[in-house]
Amino acid sequence: MSDASFLEPPHETGAGRLPGDPTPRDLIARMIRVDHAGEYGAGRIYAGQLAVLGHTDKRALLEHMAAQEAVHLETFSRMISERTIRPTAMLPLWHIAGYVLGAGTALLGSRAAMACTVAVEETIDEHYRDQVAQLGADESKLAGTIERFRAEELEHRDIGLEHEAELAPAYRLLSAVIKAGCRVAIRISERV
Question: What radius of gyration, in Å, describes the C-alpha atoms of the chain?
């Protein structure tokens, strides 16, 4: 055994947990709950953007990304049911907030809508990466699903960048505010 063996990932989800840490079941429930909420919110963001930009050349692009988010939501909805996990109680708020964020950024123009996509997807990339790092071999199927969805979220980020997200008015400020909001929504949705 090497001196660096303590850096190797745990073989089982929750290995090395300390008193007060969530049980492996609770950890997985939090992950699926928040991922379900996030994918629900993403669908609402695209619905808001499509309501404003649906008549523009961005329609097909937004529909493509929304369709992928719908598959993600369907997958996490199935997991919620199969694993008997309580969804977040915040879904009614995320229903409104997601739509308002999508429509609001779209009203600022297509670049701002793309800036929203980039900010959300960069936050989700970090979130999904952290989740996969916590999963052990016993949850390899869940880890694979999250990695596959993470790759699609990164595709969305790249699409946003290709469509001039960084040229949106007050891009850095807009991005920072959206990322902060996403991080708060993640923390709330894990627990509530």
Answer: 18
DSSP secondary structure of the chain: --GGGGGSPPSSTTTTPPTTSPPHHHHHHHHHHHHHHHHHHHHHHHHHHHHHHTTSTTHHHHHHHHHHHHHHHHHHHHHHHHTT-PPPTTHHHHHHHHHHHHHHHHHT-HHHHHHHHHHHHHHHHHHHHHHHHH--GGGHHHHHHHHHHHHHHHHHHHHHHHTTGGGSTTHHHHHHHHHHHHHHHHHHHHH-
pLDDT at 156: 97
Give the per-residue pLDDT at 5: 44
pLDDT at 11: 63
Closest CA to 118 of 149, 164, 73, 53: 164
| Low-confidence residues of the chain: pLDDT under 50 | 1-8
Instruction: Tell me what pLDDT residue 12 has.
Output: 81
